[in-house]
Design brief:
Layout: H1 2-38, H2 42-52, H3 54-69, H4 76-85, H5 88-111, H6 121-133, H7 139-148, H8 154-162, H9 168-178, H10 180-197, H11 203-229, H12 240-253, E1 258-262, E2 274-277, H13 284-291, E3 298-302, H14 309-317, E4 321-323, H15 331-340, E5 345-347, H16 367-373, E6 377-383, E7 400-409, H17 411-416, H18 419-430, E8 467-470, E9 473-476, E10 482-484, H19 498-511, E11 518-527, E12 534-543, E13 547-552, E14 556-560, E15 568-570, E16 574-579, E17 582-588, H20 594-618
Parallel strand pairs: 1-7, 2-5, 2-6, 3-4, 3-5
Antiparallel strand pairs: 6-7, 8-9, 9-10, 11-12, 11-17, 12-13, 13-14, 15-16, 16-17
Length: 619
């Protein structure tokens, strides 16, 4: 009882003092300073504060307090101004005092007067979502996280915390210490700006100071997350590394895509489970993340992404599961280990991004493994995402994207189904064609840019590498044919669609497949888990029906085509192959567009083998 009386007394005294000081300074300091803030007159504010002496210092604390209570007023202005006006050892305590005063007023407003900061609803919702994601974390820990993360205003954090059952003593201690890194950053930026204005500091040094301060905040955030907030979660999807990666992804893409989620069929499904999803664009992992926002999923990712030392360490801490594309490795074992730890696992079984907007064959079926695992199998489908950022275009277009759960196979369902039935269910659920009933219209000038890197051969005359683009047209420099794309990425002539054009190229290549032999000089990067980790060399690649061959001054090898189910590649850049547990990246010395042809020939050879095997079964 006594402690509560003391807390209320402190709050009331703080409020009375703040009101008195506001009234005292209102005319001579506060109003002029706010006017300068609105006009972004940092130099004028500095001169005003210095001229007022102690009153100027008090004004810093008061404005900092007011900006806590009135959330929409940014606090950075007064913090930078104080750094410009006073030595660091004075500016820091002034700003911190103001924050504590504002936090105490907010605590009083919420606890005593039951004030609800309705204007901060958006920030409140954001904080509550973070709190819901980390229910086991204490309020003060969440406050520290939010203070270090430059996303939510200080005042909004205090309004939220005051509405919980946190005690004032813990609350004000957390506020006083949690805001220090941000205040230090702003004060030092202000001090650096002061030195720059006085011509005592070169511009490049000021820029370095600003970068260093931002880096300091990030390091402090990382240490807090890794060592305190997510302590003991290393190597799981609940780790600090995974939290940061997903938050950055959400900030990066949240406002650039209109995402629609249909998770009705997942109601009642609890982790762990396996989710399979089609792979239409570079940002599919983000769409899945939003679908599974109430879960903590682990992702199967390309082994190459984790090959660099820093990324390897980071991805391991984040609980991601590396997989060598189109190559047998131990990913399934790691996947089962993750499931047994209680986390869902997300897999893009096509293994590479869609080429023309249609489903890619699932060449590495894991249906038998899913059947044995004994966990629910969730089948999701992304539509509308292909044309927002296809692999042949280097620019993202804003549009509507829908991710929906099409089917859920429970363990009992999987036990009763044959492997082939499971495969068919997966293929059916993940099936799509972006050119069927397009959901987006793109009023862009250069819609066709990059399309010739994928549609490398003229569908009309059959010439190789003669296709070019201009604005929304794909044309051939050999025969002069022109195909125009409308705003839905459909051709306006009889060829109809991008898949339709691609199918004509396939037929041209299939017709000559028996005689086709590819050969090209390559710049090569070889990635290994051993030292040296990356080697560079030059060599020659060749491909025929029987095998893929590579030779250089250092090594010579061949891989039967039947052991290459598909080629992962980047349009107009490179393709990759694993050999002897090393990853080879091949960059054509001439005409990098040809990587698309190498990939297509491998696809056609696989289709030929499958057709031949089906024929034998029929016989």
């Amino acid at each position: 009882m006594k402690k509560k009386w003391i807390e209320k007394t402190v709050i009331l005294v703080s409020l009375a003092g703040a009101l008195f000081l506001f009234a005292f300074f209102l005319k001579d300091v506060m109003i002029p300073l706010f006017s300068m803030q609105l006009n972004n007159d940092v130099e004028g504010a500095k001169e005003l504060l210095i001229s007022k002496g102690a009153a100027g210092g008090a004004a810093v604390a008061l404005i900092e307090a007011l900006q806590m209570v009135v959330i929409f007023i940014p606090a950075e202005f007064i913090q930078v101004t104080s750094g410009l006006s006073y030595p660091f050892y004075i500016a820091l305590p002034l700003c911190d005092l103001g924050v504590c005063l504002g936090a105490s007023i907010i605590f009083l407003l919420v606890r005593v007067f039951r004030f609800d900061a309705g204007r901060s609803k958006k920030n409140k919702d954001q904080i509550e979502r973070m709190a819901a994601d980390n229910k086991e974390k204490k309020v003060w820990m969440l406050m520290y996280l939010l203070f270090i993360t430059p996303i939510v205003p200080f005042g909004a954090i205090c309004y939220y915390a005051s509405s919980t059952d946190i005690r004032y003593r813990r609350y004000i201690l957390t506020v006083a210490t949690g805001v220090i890194p941000s205040i230090i950053t702003s004060n030092l930026i202000g001090a650096g700006a002061r030195a720059f204005i006085m011509n005592a500091l070169p511009l490049w040094v000021l820029v370095l100071i600003i970068i260093a301060m931002m880096a300091l905040l990030f390091v402090l955030l990382w240490l807090f997350l890794d060592k305190i907030y997510f302590k003991g979660k290393d190597g799981t999807p609940e780790s600090a590394a995974c939290f940061l990666a997903m938050k950055i992804a959400a900030l990066w893409r949240k406002h650039s895509v209109r995402l629609h989620i249909d998770d009705e069929k997942m109601k009642g499904i609890e982790a762990p489970f396996v989710m399979l999803c089609n792979h239409v664009s570079f940002y599919d992992f983000y769409y899945v993340l939003e679908l599974l926002k109430d879960y903590k999923p682990a992702y199967i990712i390309n082994h190459h992404i984790t090959s660099a030392p820093v990324l390897r360490h980071f991805s391991k801490k984040a609980g991601m599961i590396p997989k060598k594309m189109f190559y047998r490795d131990t990913a399934a074992v790691k996947m089962l280990r993750t499931l047994r730890s209680g986390y869902p696992v997300v897999v893009f079984p096509e293994g590479r991004l869609s080429i023309d907007g249609r489903s890619s064959p699932i060449v590495e079926s894991a249906a038998s493994a899913y059947k044995k695992f004994g966990y629910p199998l969730v089948l999701a489908n992304i539509s509308g995402g292909y044309f927002t950022y296809p692999k042949w275009r280097g620019k993202f277009y804003r549009g509507d994207v829908t991710i929906s759960v099409r089917r859920v196979l429970m363990p009992d369902d999987l036990r009763q189904m044959s492997v082939r039935q499971i495969e068919q269910a997966i293929e059916q659920a993940l099936s799509y064609n972006a050119s069927d009933n397009p959901v987006n219209r793109f009023h862009k000038k250069n819609k066709a840019r990059g399309l010739n890197h994928m549609l490398y051969r003229c569908a009309d005359c059959g010439e190789l590498y003669t296709t070019q683009t201009k604005h929304s047209d794909l044309y051939c420099t050999a025969c002069g044919s022109v195909h125009h794309l409308d705003d839905s990425y459909l051709f306006t002539d009889s060829i109809g669609s991008i898949p339709g054009y691609y199918d004509r190229i396939k037929e041209l290549e299939r017709r000559d497949l028996a005689e086709t032999e590819l050969k090209a000089e390559m710049n090569v990067k070889i990635f290994s888990d051993k030292k040296p980790r990356v080697r560079k060399e030059k060599g020659v690649c060749s491909l025929n029906r029987e095998a893929f061959y590579y030779s250089s001054d250092q090594i010579r090898f061949s891989v039967p085509t039947e052991k290459i189910p598909a080629l992962a590649f980047s349009c107009n850049k490179e393709f990759e192959i694993y050999y002897n547990n090393e990853q080879y990246y091949f960059y054509p010395v001439e005409n990098p567009r040809q990587v698309m042809r190498w990939s297509l020939i491998i696809d056609l050879l696989r289709e030929e083998r499958i057709s031949r095997e089906k024929g034998k079964i029929s016989d």
